[in-house]
Amino acid sequence: MNQETITTARQIGFFGGSFNPIHNGHIALARSLLEAAGLDEVWFVVSPQNPFKQNSDLLDDAARMAMVTAALEGEPRLKPCGVELTMPRPSYTWHTLCRLRSEHPGLQFTLLIGGDNWERFDRWYHSADILATCRIVVYPRRAQGCGGPIDAGSLPAGVTMADTPLIDISSTEVRRRVAEGLPIDTLVPPAVAAMISKQGWYAANADACRGNRS
Ligand code: ATP
């Protein structure tokens, strides 16, 4: 495929995550990837709860999707995407990409992944098929373990490194601050802070608040 063919389709960045909750780091990263990766839009693909993994901190799918939707209002090129919430679980990126391609044949998807995930990419389900059919853009993400920076020269064809800033925010930190009663206004969009506060999500005594509270 030559460069001209690639650029005729609308370019969509596939940005998957649990978004528990979405924070300003996700949004700043997506904004800079629009330019760094030459994308028309970035879709925030909310991953569902995994029935085989118990994570008591993880809010239910509807709650996380609602926060992503609220956070991205007024961001015309950043879109919430709930497709995985309707698919069989556990969800695999390969299946999601296949579904998105069949639902949106006019769009071209680029997988956006952090350097930490890239180090484990060869263990992903159908990783070779993803690599063969999808452009991948790896953005810098502080390594959780001992891994260092990725050597751009070692990346296979179709995979590029994006030069995006490191933003020192994580969902873990947001949840910890809420549980400790500390403010999160500089870490998440105002609409998200308001929802978390109103629903009592992530509060230390919030066992009864997982998911919806009317
Ligand atoms: P948690 O702290 O719960 O592990 P998280 O903040 O890493 O969550 P995820 O929902 O896992 O958020 O994020 C989706 C993707 O966004 C991840 O693959 C991660 O690489 C990336 N990401 C999250 N926060 C940042 C950040 N501050 N800068 C760059 N990338 C980020």
UniProtKB/TrEMBL annotation:
GO molecular function, one term: ATP binding
ATP-binding recorded as keyword: yes
Catalytic activity: nicotinate beta-D-ribonucleotide + ATP + H(+) = deamido-NAD(+) + diphosphate
UniProt KW keywords: ATP-binding, NAD, Nucleotide-binding, Nucleotidyltransferase, Pyridine nucleotide biosynthesis, Transferase
Cross-referenced SUPFAM superfamilies: Nucleotidylyl transferase (SSF52374)
UniProt GO BP: NAD+ biosynthetic process
Start and end residues of each Cytidyltransferase-like domain: 14-177
InterPro entries: Cyt_trans-like, NadD/NMNAT, Rossmann-like_a/b/a_fold
EC annotation from Swiss-Prot or TrEMBL: 2.7.7.18
Pathway: Cofactor biosynthesis; NAD(+) biosynthesis; deamido-NAD(+) from nicotinate D-ribonucleotide: step 1/1
NCBIfam families: cyt_tran_rel, nicotinate (nicotinamide) nucleotide adenylyltransferase
Family: Belongs to the NadD family.
Functional description taken from the UniProt entry: Catalyzes the reversible adenylation of nicotinate mononucleotide (NaMN) to nicotinic acid adenine dinucleotide (NaAD).
Name the record gives this protein: Probable nicotinate-nucleotide adenylyltransferase
